[in-house]
Amino acid sequence: MADDSVVLLGAFAMQVYHYYMNYAHSDRPFFVVLVCVVVAIEIAHMCMATHLTYYVLALGYTNPRVFEQTPWSGAALPAVNGLVGLCTQVFFAWRIATVTSATDALKAGRVASGVILLTGVMQCAAAFAVTIQYSFLSRQLLLLRTLKTTVIVWLAGSFTCDTIITVTMVVLLLRARGNMSFRGSRNMMNALIIHSVENGAITTFCALIDLLTFLLLPDTLYYACFEYLLGRLYANVLMATLNGRNRMREIGEPSMTEDFELALGKSTRKTPPEVSQVQFRVSFGSEDDNVDEYELKTRTQGSATFCSDRGSQFDEDVSAKGRGDQYPCQ
């Protein structure tokens, strides 16, 4: 699992590079600071994990007594994982509060964000408690099982917090999708729902497996394998969410453009032979009553009153059913 942790760190490094190149210079200061904090935590975690791995596999080679007492780096890992988990949970609590701030679900969003923050702080405090108590036990590995209650609060808190985040995001996005009529917007909501479920399931599943292996297999070190991964998964979920914003917009853009064309009266289906192409002019008034003119091309069935690019008016005047509002020629 140490190798998997290094792989996840590499993926995290690529995510950070992508964020720096595309978002860091224009993003919210809160996001930039949060990313910097997570980067510092991840660097510290990798140093500790490397030291622990070297101590066990290199210095303790052929010496089984190395498992009796772990180094200081092994005791520090729970605190580091809890801290990076808290950073990710704070981000999603802020996101839920922001999404619901302009809707009738404002009160529910604030309650959910508050519960997420409290649960996140609880799991982080429990993770630090595991580190402190384990250090007081002289880092004796066999005595770690005596910290059962504290470990349960830590991992169960992470599992509960991630579940609340996933369920809340899915409910909010489903509700928002139901109020949207444009297909592009609905496609973007579908992508966000899938993204929320996938990211939430990753950390939720890892925290659950870590808890179960600690409770059901206390005489093994399987739980330590998932402990290596948990913090790295939190960091990658955070960066993937931040870096996925442009991709989510791109998912909705083609369909949203098509919806906008339909709203203007432009047909996206194959047009019949008798449909003619004309050029007309649309005028938009600005706040200072200046008029900007845009020439658009559309396909209309039948005939209607349009203005050409030179301002000449067509003589025929027949309705164009379903083509939006009629604009008089200037």
Strand content: 5-15%
Number of domains: 2
What is the overall shape? globular
Second-tier CATH architecture of the largest domain:
Up-down Bundle
Structural class: mainly alpha
Largest sheet: 2 strands, antiparallel
CATH class of the largest domain: Mainly Alpha
- Gyration radius (Cα, Å) is 28 Å
Q: Give the fraction of residues assigned to helices.
A: 55-70%
Spell the H/E element sequence: HHHHHHHHEE
Low-pLDDT segments, ≥5 res = 255-330
Would you kindly provide a written description of the structure presented here, covering whatever features stand out?
The protein is mainly alpha-helical. The protein folds into two domains: 2-256, Up-down Bundle (Rhopdopsin 7-helix transmembrane proteins); 268-330, no CATH class. The protein contains eight helices and two strands, in the order ααααααααββ. The protein has helices at residues 2-22, 29-59, 72-99, 106-136, 148-178, 183-216, 222-243, 245-264, and strands at residues 276-285, 291-300. Strands 1-2 form a two-stranded antiparallel ribbon. α3 (72-99) packs antiparallel against α4 (106-136) and α5 (148-178) packs antiparallel against α6 (183-216). It is globular, with a radius of gyration of 28 Å. The relative contact order is 0.10. The model is unreliable at 255-330 (pLDDT under 50).
